[in-house]
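Posting this for the archive.
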Amino acid sequence: MEIHSYSPVTTEAIGRELGKMLGSGDFVSLTGDLGAGKTLFVHGIASGLAVKGPVSSPSFLIIQEYQGRYPIFHCDFYRLGSYQELEDIGWEEYFNRGGIILVEWGDLIPEALPVDYLKIEISQVGRENGRLLRFIPHGKHYEAVIKELAIKCESWA
């Protein structure tokens, strides 16, 4: 599924709708060039999960934790060189904490991704604020999530 967004407000709103549908154990990998809107989209997801307070890029911290309806682990693989670096910070433990894992630049360390997850590719298109959000579900659960999101965001497609 693809959705075009022509403003940061809409990009964040789409993330918020997705956030309302996510639950414990969900995993989302976001890809796109620098400045594509990955962190903005995560901010929307966090809002949909009732996170209070600011959401920022975890570029230098690798993982930021937020509390909403579920614990949220916002990760950034951009500065990592290997899966070993993730193992060194206890990556596997995050999967057992009953939270939602949101990873920016997930494609850089594919062995860190579970079998079932939602991939979101964000690319700049057209005007300065134009974005194309492409949702690629891996697994039946995420296929159902994307079908529901498509219905909720029908007017944005």
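Residues 3 and 156 are 6 Å apart (CA to CA). The radius of gyration is 14 Å.
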